[in-house]
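Cross-posted from the bioinformatics board.
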Amino acid sequence: YSDHCPLTPLKWARQLFLINSFSVRRSARDITNMSQQAANGLPCRGKVLNLDNMNPNVRRVEYAVRGAIVQRALQIDKELKEGVKKPFTEVIKANIGDAHAMGQKPITFLRQVLALCAYPDLLDDNKFPDDSKQRARRILEACGGHSIGAYSSSQGIECIRQDVARYIEKRDDGISSDPDNIYLATGASDAIVTMLKLLVCGKGRDRTGVMISIPQYPLYSAALADLAAVQINYYLDEDKCWSLDIAELKRAVTAARQHCNPRVICIINPGNPTGQVQSRQCIEDVIRFAKEEHLFLMADEVYQDNVYAEGCKFHSFKRVLFEMGPEYSTTVEMASFHSTSKCYMGECGFRGGYMEVINMDPEVKAQLTKLVSVRLCPPVPGQALLDLVVNPPQPDEPSYDKFMKERTAVLAALAEKAGLTEQIFNTVPGITCNPVQGAMYTFPRITLPQKAIDKAKAEGQVPDMFYCMKLLEEEGICLVPGSGFGQREGTFHFRMTILPPTEKLKFVLQKISDFHIRFTQEFS
Amino acid sequence: RSLVPQKVQKNHRKMSALQEMSPNVRNIKQLQYVALIRRASQIKEELRQKVRKPYKEMIDVCWGDPHRAGVKPLTFVRQVLAACLYPQLVDSDTLPVDVRQRARMLLRGCAGGSVGSYTAPAGTSEIVHGISEFITRRDGGAPSYPENIYISPGSQWALQNIINVLVNSEPSSPKTGVLTPLPCYSTTISSMVGLGAVAVPYSLCEERGWELQVEELQRALESAKGVCKPVALYIVNPGNPTGYVQSRKSMQEVIRFASEKRLFLLADEVYQDCVYGDNSEFVSYKRVLAEMGPPLSDTVELASFHSASKGFMGECGLRGGYVELVNMDPAVMKYIYTLFSADSCAPVLGQFALDLLTSPPQPGDPSYPLYRQVRGSDDQFAGCLIVVNSLPGFSCQPVEGGVFAFPRMHLPPAAIHKATEMGMQPDLFYCARLLEEAGVFVIPGCEYGQKEGTYHIRFCIMVQEDIMEELLRRLTSFHTQFMKDFS
């Protein structure tokens, strides 16, 4: 969208929507005809790489978190900077789980160590505490040429993998973790995509099917489209606080066996976008299900420190697996994922993360090791950061007090905001909000008047995108429509982050509430 | 496992067995020298345990990794990164003024003023603009558009995204082919195979300094008939492992060829800052294309790759690279955006490294004198080649660019025989011995592809001077002994 575009924002968005569609599937033919040139009547023949011969899988890839609504938000940002008058002075980007972007402060200790690693001359500076220097020295010792600028081994720096293994053992009450089963990655997303790349195979009815929750974090659907895997949806139960129902898993996998070969089940716990924290019983049931149905289990646990609700607790899939005894712990094949982007650190920009693989066939594991080498290595600063996350200041160390204070403050603020969000949204007629048990988002259900649904469809838009676009234009608040994550037919949602500082969050909640009432009236 | 009752073991079949995994991943060639990697790791450990060896330290020159090879990071770069990581440093006067200014500027481009925030998928707008300005300056004014630039975690990642778009993944279609040089560094081949493409090798001409010959491109194209459908031509300039720097004339021929045969041009130019010798000059494919004028300059589709990993910055571990796309179909660009957005963004420190690469300190800046000092000397590389060429049986083409030497070894028949007996490629055998007896870790030519019956080794020459001297000393002494043993 540019200043020279003759289209109104909504019409422009619709063009983009038709190209970057947000509903679940569109046929390849629809998209083929919608190149910008073709839309403007100019032929785009003769390109060596064009819509007709590009990878058809890539044409099916969508990623709502950075989709058309965000592009429109950036455009509005630009207009505001240029002095265009709007009913608001800033665009609040509540679309992406980026804590620092919303003003959350980095943890001092982490940044001190990283600065020392980047510029080791600072090791002589007495402004840095001893424990930070000790960790920096240890990390640098493990780096090629003692520099974070050297490649590391593709699986990640060995002593860091050892530290990660020890962290997992401590977290899981002593259940052993082998550093050789740990793969550091460029964010958890990289590890997730790598596992899927490894596992997806087969042709036609034998094509690998991958079970994923609806709603889901659209990295999964994007990766599955890219790999031409079959996406097998299992619906979370909105009426039961987005809980997972084994009967629903059974339904989904049985139906899927008609047309594909289900081999993988993905769980996000705590959930994104829904925030639900699975009960221990539920995790056991899923593990049993995975064993019965012979499925590889992918446990996305990047929000493991983000648990707020009373009575909710994070149980790692690995721990539950091992506590179920050898019948399961020696047979169920699993990968667990964690990251430095969320929790109390919020260091998205470092692209740090890891996965732990359990019970993988050794020959397949060798293939995995080979595959990760093609990306050379994960960013070393991200590896260093991960090392600090798994190896934080201990009670007898100088940085401990400050570290714990900062960490507690971040998690407490998130918990407060989670409660506030649920409370305020539930006062609005037409918005129903499940408790935000964990993670960083709320995914409330919105009731849209039939007139609005009809208007949206007339404009070629999915109704919740229509709603969110209007909210963006009128209030400068950027959310992601529920259609970007998947939802039951006929229901509508949006995903909002709970990351803005409390006062700003209250402001946002108020604005959305007011907008919703206005919207409902306008289309009544 | 030994504690598990037998009955449980017997009934269980692995779900992720080798037959049930991606064939593309399976088809990626395992590294030939993987045994050397393991042994090198063991030797490092043994040295740490003070096991007696003929050497005190291993010389690891197998990767193009200057820091690993003892080259120090640039002070300016690291000071800026430290200040960005820990902004308290921006306000203190521990660091020079220009460092603090740059850090402030970079942090202003970050959401929430933090390097911990995601950036836009293609990179922060200021840095991307800086890169496009750098490209325009480098290319004598040929315009570069920021919206055509994507920063990625290393150039290989961007290359994979572009190849992913090029590959036709329909099971009923012929496989997609990409013309690749022989020899070629193995990671790129692995990327292509992993994405379901087929590498179609075109041989570089060793006798003529590893020259690229268009007739050979034609032959390669023909060899693909019935095997795959070539859609792209991958060029590495300056070369890896060969060190060849293409002439303008050669590049024009390649561009014409790509245009004629309707091939997408992939120009891997990560070593563009590493050019030596009086007769060589790096000129980018983009520039040559632009200077050829329409219709070629408006129609040949090109992706050029660069990185902060090479050159005198050598910040491999930060993972900062970029791709510039030229003459792409705008409709396809929208999908490229989506692909990059699903990756979130490149690591912010890697993006900063690119900014520092493309906008270094200028004369007059406080950090400029120190920054200027650091460039390696061309004499060092020339000296290295003289020594290598003096070894009996070694012949090395001139290294005009890149960071590697890729000498050919004429191995005595007895050595070849011994290697064959052991089931090893002769050059792998040589490297294994070199590692064990002299503690020098280099990569055998079989890893890159070479003409049948020829053998090579590749090692990084962008190393600390004293390390280079030690390397050459050990190589000379080992080689002399080796030739005696197998005479």
